[in-house]
Amino acid sequence: MKTKILAAVLLAATLCGSANAARVEGWILSGERAGSYEIGEDTGEGKSNKVPRFIRYTGGDASSFGTLMQQISARNYQGKRVRFQALVKTRDVSNWAGLWMSALRAREERPEAFYNSQDKPIAGTTDWQVRSVTLDIPEDAATLNFGVINAGKGQVWIDELSLEVVGKDVPVDVMPGRYVPAETPSL
């Protein structure tokens, strides 16, 4: 009887510990193969007074991606140019990693504004470097999504994050092949 109770207590402690390790307040683990990754906080790797967050490949399908992300209301950013910036560090990233951001209108699945840094990949093992994504957020955007992608194996950390409205002098990031209309006609 005592053995069964002890086993139940140990199992509960293990499950609670795993749940706490994978919980990062305000952040979501998502992506095409989210089950192949874990997220967390790492007090030993930071550059700032804050605790850096990470996404790490744990096994399974490494041909896809996972993301450590946030989703917030776009209300305070509608009609504005917004930059998501962070320090990024990688270890043994087999495919690529990078920051990303998107803005979605209500009841739409395809984002009006989107950029994922795939054309500026971070791979292998790198020290901390400043990376950013800048988008024009539509006037009628409902949600703003942003985070870091880990495509493949390895681990990615982010630290010193900021999300800010910037001026029109800061260029917008555009996915290769995506059409961006000109601001003025070329008559």
CATH H-level homologous superfamily name: Galactose-binding domain-like
Shape: globular
Which residues sit in consecutive blocks of at least 5 with pLDDT less than 50?
1-21
Task: Quickly count the helices.
Answer: 1
Structural category? mainly beta
Could you tell me the number of beta strands? 9
Number of domains: 1
Question: Under CATH, the topology is which?
Answer: Jelly Rolls
Estimated share of beta-strand residues: over 45%
Q: What is the element string, with H for helices and E for strands?
A: HEEEEEEEEE
Helix content: 10-25%
Mean pLDDT score: 85
The major β-sheet equals: 9 strands, antiparallel
Radius of gyration: 19 Å
Folded structure, characterized:
- This protein has one helix and nine strands.
- It has 187 residues and is mainly β.
- The protein has one domain: Jelly Rolls.
- Strands 1, 2, 3, 4, 5, 6, 7, 8 and 9 form a nine-stranded antiparallel β-sheet that branches.
- Mean pLDDT is 85; it is low at 1-21.
What are the main properties of this structure?
mainly beta; 187 residues; 9-stranded antiparallel β-sheet; globular; Jelly Rolls; 11% helix
Summarize the entry for a quick read.
By secondary structure, this protein is mainly beta. The chain has a single domain (32-166), classed as Galactose-binding domain-like (Jelly Rolls), CATH 2.60.120.260. The chain has one helix spanning 2-22; strands at residues 28-30, 37-41, 53-57, 65-73, 81-105, 113-115, 122-136, 141-151, 155-166.
